[in-house]
Specification:
The complex is a heterodimer of chains A (about 300) and B (about 250). With about 300 residues, chain A is α/β, with parallel strands linked by helices. Chain A contains eight helices and 16 strands. The mean pLDDT of chain A is about 95. In chain B, the strands form two sheets. Chain B has a nine-stranded mixed β-sheet with strand order 9-8-7-10-6-1-4-5-11, with helices on both faces. In chain B, strands 2-3 form a two-stranded antiparallel ribbon. The longest helix of chain B has 15 residues. The model of chain B has no long low-confidence stretch (mean pLDDT about 95). Classes of the chains: A alpha/beta (about 300), B alpha/beta (about 250). At the A-B interface, helix 3, helix 4, strand 5, strand 7 and strand 8 of A face helix 3, helix 4, strand 7, strand 8 and strand 9 of B.
């Protein structure tokens, strides 16, 4: 049976949800081994070992791995791939940064953003901003894949009893260093794991209006807040709010699009949502072609009224 | 410092791609083609570094069909100094492109290679990272700010929760994200001037690279379509729907 090595997404304290979909994808390829690479991350490995279906957890605890710099962790993964058949990473910014570096060092083609596992070496993946789905088969001896989180169910966080095994790898490559991060802190749920998302578009006029209109509705519903690329480019909200092909790919239970016309770019990021609700004053807006429930109305009246009535 | 900027000719971002009825790919016959938008941002960043006096020469490279010359001429019209076309009619996967770029990088010894983070046709998001791996150089992916100081470059990166800053030793590989800059349009005089800038013609064989694909495309299909649902008359109708869905 093939052995897979799954990149565990974490912050040196706990396992991030994106890992769970990658575990599900890997379990369709073979035995699931995990890699927890970080610094002072033993607790992460213990938590990861409990994920259902996990066979073994490789714990690489080294200051050089603290911030998942690709230059430092790729050689570690390449070492471990000596005894694994597939490297599987969630398509997070870390996964997208690291996996191709690993693939090139192994001299294999990477399969990005897989949507399904069709066979031992066959996968589907989106191309052309999700407008064409390609079924591809690898001819390489080893596989390197990244996994679209919204396309696979999340593995259960309890029930597994993997053995944690410490591994060591190459130390700091001396090519790069971590300077700092500006990570937005929010009381609201994370976009990629939220059950409900309220997103605003360019029609919100400016940052202050966006906050006044969208935030109260999101808070009433316990929802995450998203935005279209137009709203982000116009500076209403920071870039990490962006839902779309070049932003975050989301698939919540309910997605509420407020003042979003529905450009292809945006639809590519949210069309797998279970229920899509659109509020837009233009009844011909393309968003209504994908929405399950539509309300043609001026958002500046409709959204406050909706917030008030919930 | 010399900067190398690889560019790709792709379907124009305003064109809606259509899957061929026989499921072999996307129909590109008589479709408008342009420079990959992320690569335009890469060209622009290189030009800005030259305008700041940091870069001395900008070399644009494309791996693709004869018509990729047009894409290179666009880069030259924007402000690149010369161009290299590595001509092939085959579809070249990111790994093989990275191998060709590695050979060119070793020949040209640029201080920076700036690439788009992904091409909007295959959406792979791999070439820059692969090139960095093959060269054993650092990578600053998904850049939203690039600052060159002495023998290092500081890159602000767009990551899942916000922004991250890394410092890389030069030479380094950078891939661009959307908000790095707004690319300029080439002026008519510059488009005319670009016609006389040098453009070298090469083939993958010149660099000793085998471009045989590692992935076989078995099928290309349309994504499942969502059908339009119902319209509600007013906010009360919406409240009722949200209650039905159990979220209100």
């Amino acid at each position: 049976m093939a052995k897979t090595l799954v990149w565990v997404e974490h912050d040196n304290a706990s396992v991030k949800d994106a890992t769970l979909a990658a575990v599900t994808a890997a379990s369709q390829l073979g035995e699931v081994h995990l890699l927890v690479a970080g610094a002072g991350c033993a607790a992460v490995a213990d938590q990861a070992a409990k994920i259902a279906g996990v066979g073994k957890v490789h714990l690489a605890d080294n200051a050089a791995y603290a911030n998942a710099l690709a230059e430092n962790v790729a050689p570690l993964i390449v070492d471990l791939m000596g005894s694994h058949d597939a490297f599987v990473a969630p398509a997070t910014s870390n996964g997208k940064n690291i996996a191709p570096r690993v693939a090139a060092l192994l001299d294999v083609a990477q399969i990005s953003d897989i949507l399904s596992v069709e066979g031992e070496k066959t996968f589907t993946r989106p191309t052309y901003a999700g407008n064409a789905i390609a079924t591809v088969e690898s001819s390489d001896a080893k596989l390197v894949v990244t996994v679209r989180g919204t396309a696979f169910a999340k593995a259960a966080t309890e029930g597994g009893s993997g053995a944690v095994e410490a591994v060591s790898g190459p130390s700091d490559a001396g090519l790069s260093s971590f300077v700092g991060a500006e990570i937005a802190k929010s009381e609201r749920p994370e976009l990629t794991s939220a059950k409900v998302i309220v997103s605003g578009g360019r029609a919100l006029k400016d940052g202050a209006t966006f906050e006044q209109v969208i935030f109260p509705l999101a808070d009433k519903l316990g929802a995450a807040v998203g935005a279209s690329r137009a709203a982000v480019d116009a500076g209403y909200v920071p870039n990490d709010y962006q839902v779309g092909q070049t932003g975050k790919i989301v698939a919540p239970e309910v997605y509420i699009a407020v003042g979003i016309s529905g450009a292809i770019q945006h639809l590519a990021g949210m069309k797998d949502s279970k229920t899509i609700i659109a509020i837009n004053k233009d009844e011909d807006a393309p968003i209504f072609q994908v929405a399950d429930v539509g309300l043609v109305a001026d958002l500046f009246n409709a959204v406050p009224e909706l917030t008030g009535k919930l | 410092m010399k900067i190398l900027v690889p560019v790709k000719r792709v379907i124009d971002y305003n064109v809606k791609p259509r899957v061929k009825s026989d499921g072999t790919g996307v129909d590109l016959a008589n479709v408008k083609m342009s420079m990959n938008p992320f690569d335009e941002i890469a060209v622009e960043e290189a030009i800005r570094l030259k305008e700041k006096g940091i870069a001395t020469e900008i070399v644009a490279v494309s791996v693709g069909p004869a018509k990729a010359q047009e894409t290179l001429r666009t880069a030259l019209a924007m402000g690149a100094d010369r161009a290299i076309l590595v001509q092939t009619d085959d579809e070249v996967e990111p790994l093989a492109v990275a191998k060709i770029l590695k050979a060119i990088t070793e020949e040209e010894t640029p201080g920076l290679v700036i690439l788009g983070k992904q091409a909007i046709d295959d959406d792979s998001n791999q070439t820059g990272q692969m090139l960095a791996a093959l060269l054993g150089r650092p990578q600053g992916t998904f850049a939203s700010e690039v600052t060159v100081e002495g023998d290092s470059v500081t890159v602000k990166r767009e990551v899942d929760g916000g922004l991250e800053t890394v410092k890389l030793s030069l030479p380094a590989i950078i891939t661009t994200d959307l908000r790095l800059n707004e690319p300029r349009y080439a002026s008519l005089p510059n488009i005319m001037k670009a016609k006389s800038k040098p453009l070298a013609n090469k083939t993958p064989a010149d660099y000793g690279v085998d471009t045989a694909p590692r992935l076989k495309t078995l099928k290309v299909s349309e994504p499942p379509v969502r059908s339009a649902g119902v319209k509600v008359a007013d906010v009360d109708g919406l409240v009722a729907k949200l209650k039905e869905l159990g979220v209100a």
